[in-house]
Specification:
CATH superfamily of the largest domain in chain A: HUPs
Distance between the termini of chain A: 41 Å
Largest interface: A-B, 29 and 29 residues
Shape of chain A: globular
Number of domains of chain A: 2
Oligomer: homodimer
CATH topology of the largest domain in chain A: Rossmann fold
Strand order of the largest sheet of chain A: 1-4-3-2-6-7
Chain lengths: 298, 298
């Protein structure tokens, strides 16, 4: 395995590379993890949908700091896609993913078949009413039920000590934290900061959908959110700042704006101002590509 | 602890009685179970809502056959009661339960506080659409979501090798099995046969609600279901047998009949006849008391 020569790739983790094992069934996953446990290792899990980029590898590196053995799941989860969303065309590249994971220092790639994750007749779902119904949940009905269900399955399958999620999907991070707490799953959830291109665009597998023209506009999502956060931190009212942010995105060339929202950073309820942590979150479309991003209120 | 002198109590299990430990928090439960594990024991869990009777003790004895250390949870689960159901008056008797569990050979009583099972802000729910929406689920909306949620929590808290459920709550048994399979919880679910009074009435904590007159009628639920099962096993059509069963219960003095249903014993879909296993299930009211029961088609 060679290190990708992408110059935006951070330096390779200073971690011994015992090679990447690939497992495809829950029973093989459990066997491997049981062996890691017998060897006295702490287990880290990084759930992904594959099409891995530098942002995912940053999650792996985060996991390598807090765990001895890192398992990355790659599973394009059908239950978190709506009927008119991009499940069929979502990018898939297992060979490329495996190369990147080996170079990034991961130990185990778990690539289950859909019928192993969702056995015939599977109907059981994990829901997070409230937190899972607002913002992304309002625009993508059922999305967080799909996310909470698949993450619950993965955590119960692997029973890791720690699991790492990116702040890029900020509401997902909070939904997973709530689910883990409420179901008493014995795992610590770690948040890793969003990785961005040099021009500010948050890394996302869906950036691959953008045309050159859209790609040029896309970073404005980040800069607009940063400006909204700056405004509310200087005393502007959240509602005015949200309105300004939405208008700014449309002027920048975004096709539609689903929401620009100033929220409490823990509950995602309307932000009550300092000393509560604030978070500015947004979703907007560029042509047919839907982008999300978020920043803290400084 | 002394053995209760109720003559209907089966003989005491021939199991060493190291005394019953009582724990009230998830962290104490996990500490105790981790110690059992270090000692090399197989762990059995028997989830209950307390008000324990001989039927529950039979579950404990079943667990003692398949596990070395048996934990019984006693928790009147608020989320499985409807707004007009009997949560507030459901019988509670922790001291009596502890005495019976010690005599029955259980090792650990887990009696959590509601705020430990459902932390403030808890909204996460486990649903089993389809199987959880029919029969009991149709007459008690949300019931199986409450059951699946609390059982998922208990199983994830204790991570036992085996958990024992009574066939008395037959649909609950199937919902739990489906939930455990779909979420990949690493536990074996064991079914224990229904324990009955000498006159056929299935033991239930809710039998305590019955007046003397209602108590005299109650066994007809079992005998009617047995007759329905006998009819379909002799070639009567399920729909006719169900109708006959409902009429018979009303004639016997039942106030209302929610359902008498001949179903597939694994899916609870309409029974296709032999060689598929058949099950006859019913729910009916005597005054304000709702009774359920079920029998196999012979």
């Amino acid at each position: 395995m060679t290190v990708p020569e992408d110059p935006s790739e951070p330096p390779v983790a200073q971690h011994p590379q015992p090679g990447l094992d690939i497992v495809r069934t829950v029973s093989d996953l459990r066997r491997k993890i049981a062996r890691f446990r017998r060897e006295g290792h702490r287990i880290g899990l990084v759930p992904t949908m594959g099409a891995l980029h530098t942002g995912h590898i940053a999650l792996v590196r985060h996991a390598l700091v807090v765990a001895d053995r890192v398992c990355v799941s790659v599973f394009v989860n059908p239950t978190q896609f709506g009927p008119h969303e991009d499940f069929a065309v979502y990018p898939r590249d297992e060979a490329g993913d495996a190369t990147k994971l080996a170079a990034g220092g991961a130990h185990l790639l778990f690539a289950p078949a859909p019928e192993d994750m969702y056995p015939p007749g599977d109907t059981c779902r994990v829901t997070v009413p409230g937190l899972g119904d607002i913002l992304e949940g309002a625009f993508r009905p059922g999305f967080f039920t799909g996310v909470a269900t698949v993450v619950a399955k993965l955590l119960i399958q692997a029973l890791p000590d720690v699991a790492v999620f990116g702040e890029k999907d900020y509401q997902q991070l909070l939904v997973v934290r709530r689910m883990v707490r409420d179901l008493h799953i014995p795992v610590r959830i770690e948040a890793a900061p969003t990785v961005r291109e040099a021009d500010g665009l948050a890394l996302s597998s869906r950036n691959a959908y953008l045309s050159a023209e859209e790609r040029a506009i896309a970073p404005d999502l980040h800069w607009t959110l940063t400006a909204v956060a700056d405004r509310v931190s200087h005393g502007h009212g959240p509602a005015d700042a949200e309105q300004w942010g939405g208008d700014t995105l449309v002027k920048a060339g975004f096709t539609t704006v689903d929401y620009v929202a100033v929220r409490d950073g823990e509950s995602l309820e309307p932000w009550a101002g300092p000393p509560r942590p604030g978070r500015v979150l947004a979703a907007a479309r560029l042509g047919r590509t839907r982008l999300i991003d978020n920043v803290p209120v400084p």
